[in-house]
């Protein structure tokens, strides 16, 4: 079990070992100081796999675990300017933990801004978020050598994906029919993926990885960039626009815009299998993260990834229903 966080622990660290969270915060303070920043004057930004602080003209991202960010930094340096990624001021490692410092960019995290936007602004944001991602897709010939074919929620092999599905089946108590459908969906993805053109996907195309300043001004955090079918980014775009924080399907102009984009961009032959499989793999990865929390405060069936995964296994295909008909 994870030790109880202290009363002043940041909400993003509530499932982390308090001593480890404090260690990362200390490393981040040292890195920020190198670039004229003072962590106590900076605000903590959204993000799970990395801890991020923004302020004093800079943004500091530091990995929670001992991994470097050299590959991500190399990719960011190669991105077209139209992506809007903030300028990298420096990158390195501290006690094995990778870090990247970028210039602070004016704007609000899109996830935080989302509830305040009008329906028209949300629709606009979805389209602009996709436009930024498309710049990356179109630049794949020059970027593909900098990314791998697995990472984030995309497992390296079918065996890895099958193992994750097995863990989900046990944790969620899925029926035999649901288990069979889950395995078919995953197998369908791995069968179809080699048959379509691959591009460099952002890999985590979420609202929290974009900045909003009256429009989408930047696409951030390319740590999970992956070479694969475009449906990898499409499934995330549709999920972000059509699913609430609690994991409930919502009808909105933004959701309709995301479905329209996906219908236009999906592979005409294999797109349904790919977007359905990618969405299932996305939730399997999130479910593994939630299982690691081992929290008794909420029933497993109320967990967001549980709701979304079981939704994807119904006859209509959950939030992807309009695209699977």
From TrEMBL:
> What Gene3D superfamilies is this protein classified in?
3.90.1200.10
Name by which UniProt lists this protein: Aminoglycoside phosphotransferase family protein
Q: What is the protein's species of origin?
A: Nocardiopsis coralli
Query: Cross-referenced InterPro entries, in alphabetical order?
Result: AGP_Transferase, Aminoglycoside_PTrfase, Kinase-like_dom_sf
Question: Aminoglycoside phosphotransferase domain spans which residues?
Answer: 46-258
The highest taxon in the source lineage is: Bacteria
User: What taxonomic ancestry is recorded?
Assistant: Bacteria, Bacillati, Actinomycetota, Actinomycetes, Streptosporangiales
């Amino acid at each position: 079990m994870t030790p109880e966080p202290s009363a002043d622990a940041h909400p993003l660290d509530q499932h982390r070992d308090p001593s480890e969270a404090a260690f990362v915060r200390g490393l981040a303070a040292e890195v920020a100081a190198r670039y004229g920043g003072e962590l106590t004057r900076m605000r903590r930004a959204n993000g799970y796999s990395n801890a991020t602080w923004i302020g004093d003209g800079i943004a500091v991202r530091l990995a929670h675990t001992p991994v470097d960010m050299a590959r991500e930094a190399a990719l960011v340096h190669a991105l077209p300017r139209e992506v809007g990624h903030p300028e990298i001021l420096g990158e390195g490692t501290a006690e094995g933990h990778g870090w990247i410092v970028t210039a602070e960019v004016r704007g609000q995290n899109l996830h935080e801004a989302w509830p305040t936007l009008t329906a028209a602004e949300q629709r606009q944001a979805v389209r602009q978020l996709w436009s930024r991602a498309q710049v990356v897709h179109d630049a794949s010939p020059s970027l593909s050598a900098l990314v791998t074919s697995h990472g984030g929620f995309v497992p390296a092999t079918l065996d890895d994906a099958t193992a994750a599905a097995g863990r989900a089946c046990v944790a969620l108590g899925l029926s035999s029919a649901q288990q069979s459908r889950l395995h078919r969906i995953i197998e369908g993805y791995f069968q179809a993926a080699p048959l379509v053109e691959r591009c460099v996907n952002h890999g985590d195309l979420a609202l929290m990885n974009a900045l909003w300043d009256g429009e989408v001004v930047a696409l951030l955090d390319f740590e999970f960039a992956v070479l694969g079918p475009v449906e990898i980014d499409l499934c995330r775009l549709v999920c972000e626009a059509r699913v609430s924080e609690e994991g409930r399907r919502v009808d909105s102009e933004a959701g309709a815009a995301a479905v329209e984009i996906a219908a236009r961009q999906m592979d005409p032959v294999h797109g349904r299998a790919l977007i359905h499989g990618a969405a299932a793999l996305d939730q399997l990865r999130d479910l593994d993260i939630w299982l690691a929390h081992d929290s008794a405060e909420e029933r497993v069936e109320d967990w967001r990834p549980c709701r979304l995964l079981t939704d994807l296994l119904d006859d209509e295909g959950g939030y992807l229903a309009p695209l699977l008909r």
